[in-house]
Amino acid sequence: MEIKMHTRGLDFFYGDFQALYNISIDFGINRVTALIGPSGCGKSTYLRCLNRMNDLIPGIKVAGEVKLDDSEIYDPSLDVVTLRRRVGMVFQKPNPFPKSIFENIAYGLRVNGVKDKSKITQVVEKSLKQAAIWDEVKDRLNESALGLSGGQQQRLCIARALAVDPEVLLMDEPASALDPIATQKIEELITELSSKLTIIIVTHNMQQAARVSDRTAFFYMGKLIEVNDTDTLFTKPDLKQTEDYITGRFG
Amino acid sequence: MIKQRLFAQKVNFSLLKIAAWINGAALAIIVYFILSRGWRAISWEFLTKPPTDSMTAGGILPCIVGTFLLCLVTILIALPIGVASAIYLNEYAVQGRLVRLIRLGINNLAGVPSIVFGLFGLAFFCIVLKMGVSALAGGLTLGIMTLPVIIGASEEALKSVPQTYREASLAMGATQWQTIYKVVLPAAFPGIITGSILGLSRAAGETAPIMYTGAVFFTPDLPGSIFDEVMALPYHIYVLATAGTEIEQTRHLQYGTALVLIALVFGMNLTAIILRSRLRKKVRT
C-alpha cells in the first residue's frame, strides 16, 4: 500500500489535558480510512490535526510526526494555507456560505488566485458533477445555497472542498446531521471519490464505517486501540475491547 | 395551594408587564409633549430659513445642515476605526493581557461623561491640532465618543457569525485575511451597519461634546466646509432655552427644534431597523 499521509507517535494537548496518546496510522493513497470510537475518544481531534485546523484553538500542543507525502506538516517552514488547500475538509453540519451556489464553489478558486472566468465556470460545473449534485442545482446556480436541503447542502460543501483539487479529504461525521436517503447519497459519493482521493472519515456509525471504508481505526479514550483492514477489524478483531465496541457491548 | 401559586404567578407577570409598559409610556409621553408644543413652529420657512431677529423668529436651516455635517464627520471617523478595532479584537488578536487592557480602555471610554469629551476635544483638536471650533473638530470629538458603541456593535455582529464559516474558508486554503474580508465581514455587515447608525443617532443629539468644539451660538451663513464652525440642533435648543434673548417668547421655536431633532433621530433608527431586516433577508435566504 502506497502511503499518502501518516502520523507517528502523535500526542495532542488542550492546555494540560492530553487528548491523544501516541497515535500512529498510515493512510493509503486513494483509500478510505474510517476513524471510529465513542464520543470524546479523540477521533475528531485527531482528524483536525491532519489539516492543522486545531491551530485555531489557543493553548494547544502537538508532538510527534504528521507527514503528507514526505513533508512534515507541523514544520515551521511549511505554509499552512497550502497545506489546507491540499488537505480539504468537510464538516459535521453542512456549512455553506450565505452566498449563491456558484459563489460557494468559486470561493476556493478565487482565494487561491484564479481569476479566469471561464476556468472558474468550468471548475464549478466539474466540482458539482463530482459531488453528484449538478443535476439538482444547474438551473439555480445564482440562488442562495441556504435554500438547499440539508443533504444537498452537504454535497455542495463536498463540491466546494473538491473545487480546489485537494489530494486528501477529511470528513468529520459528514452524514450525522442527515436523513437516511441523504446519508446513502453521501456514502455512494465517498466510494466514488475514493478512486481519485485519499479520504479519512470520522463516523460514529459503525455500519457506515463498514460500508464505505477500506481500513478502520478504533479510538478509545485518546488512544488508538486497533487499526486494520475494515473487513478484518469487523469480523476478526485482534482485541476484545474492539470486539466489545463493534458488537455494541459498550460505547 | 395551586390557586395561591397561580395567583402569585399572575401578580408577578403583571408587574413584569407594567415594567415593560413604562418604557413605551415614557417614549409616548415625550413624543406627545414635544409634538403638541412644537408642531405649530414647523413650516417650510422654519426648515429652510436661518434664524432672524436675534433668533426670536425665522428658521433653523443652519442647525439642520450643521448637525448633518457633524454626523458625516463622526461616521467617517468612527466607522472605519471602530470596525477595524472590532475585527482586530475579535478575529485576530491573541486573547491575553494586551487585549484585556484594550477592552478595559474601550469600556472606560464608553463611561467617560460627554462634557469631558467636549473639554478633551477643545484641548486636543481645537487647540493642539489647531482645528479651531469647526465641524471637523466637533465631528472628531463625537466620533471618539461613538467609537465604543460601534466597536461593541461590531464585535457582537462578528461573534454572531458561525465559527463554521471561518473553518470552511480556512479549510479551503484561504488566508485569515481572505476569510475575514470575504466571508466574515459580509455576514456581519447587517449588524455592524445597524449598530453604527444607532450609535450615530445618539451622537446626533449630543450637546456637551460639541459646545466647545464645533457648535456656535449663531452663524447666519451655512457652513462652506468642515473647517467652518456650525450651528447644531441640540445646541440650538440649549441656547434658546437658557441663553437666548427672549426665552419665553421662543418656547415654540425650542419645541419645534426639538421636534426636528427627534424626527431626525427616529428617522435614523428606523433606517437602521429597515436596513437590518432587508440585509438579513438578503444574506439568509
Model description:
Chain A has 251 residues and is an alpha/beta fold. Chain A has a domain of 171 residues: Rossmann fold (3-Layer(aba) Sandwich), CATH 3.40.50.300. Chain A is 36% helix and 27% strand. In chain A, strands 6-7-8-3-9-10 form a six-stranded mixed β-sheet, sandwiched between helices. A four-stranded antiparallel β-sheet of chain A has the order 2-1-4-5, covered by helices on one side. In chain A, strand 1 and strand 2 form a beta hairpin. In chain A, helix 3 packs across helix 4, helix 4 crosses helix 6 and helix 6 runs parallel beside helix 7. Chain A starts with a strand and ends in a 5-residue tail after the last helix. Chain B has 285 residues and is mainly α. Chain B folds into two domains: 38 residues; 241 residues, MetI-like (MetI-like fold). Chain B is 75% helix and 1% strand. A two-stranded antiparallel sheet of chain B has the order 1-2. Chain B is globular and about 70 Å long. The model of chain B has no long low-confidence stretch (mean pLDDT 90). Chains A and B meet through helix 2, helix 3 and helix 6 of A and helix 7 and helix 8 of B.
Question: Summed up, what is this model?
Answer:
With 251 residues, chain A is an alpha/beta fold.
Main sheet of chain B: which strands, in order across? Answer: 1-2
Provide the β-strand percentage band of chain A.
25-35%
Subunit arrangement of the protein: heterodimer
What's the CATH C level of the domain at 3-96 and 170-246 in chain A? Alpha Beta
Q: So, CATH architecture of the largest domain in chain B?
A: Orthogonal Bundle
User: Helicity of chain B, in percent?
Assistant: over 70%
Task: Please name the defining characteristics of this protein.
heterodimer, A: alpha/beta, 6-stranded mixed beta sheet, 4-stranded antiparallel beta sheet, 10 helices, B: 285 residues, mainly alpha
Outline the fold blueprint.
The complex is a heterodimer of chains A (251) and B (285).
Chain A: E1 3-14, E2 17-28, E3 32-36, H1 43-49, E4 60-68, E5 71-72, H2 80-86, E6 87-90, H3 101-111, H4 117-130, H5 134-137, H6 150-162, E7 168-172, H7 180-193, E8 198-202, H8 206-212, E9 215-220, E10 223-229, H9 230-235, H10 240-246
Parallel strand pairs in A: 3-8, 3-9, 6-7, 7-8
Antiparallel strand pairs in A: 1-2, 1-4, 4-5, 9-10
Helix pairs in contact in A: 3-4, 3-6, 4-6, 6-7
Chain B: H1 2-38, H2 44-48, E1 51-52, E2 57-58, H3 61-92, H4 97-111, H5 114-128, H6 135-159, H7 163-171, H8 176-204, H9 208-211, H10 233-242, H11 251-284
Antiparallel strand pairs in B: 1-2
Helix pairs in contact in B: 1-11, 3-6, 3-8, 4-6, 5-6, 6-8, 7-8, 8-11, 10-11
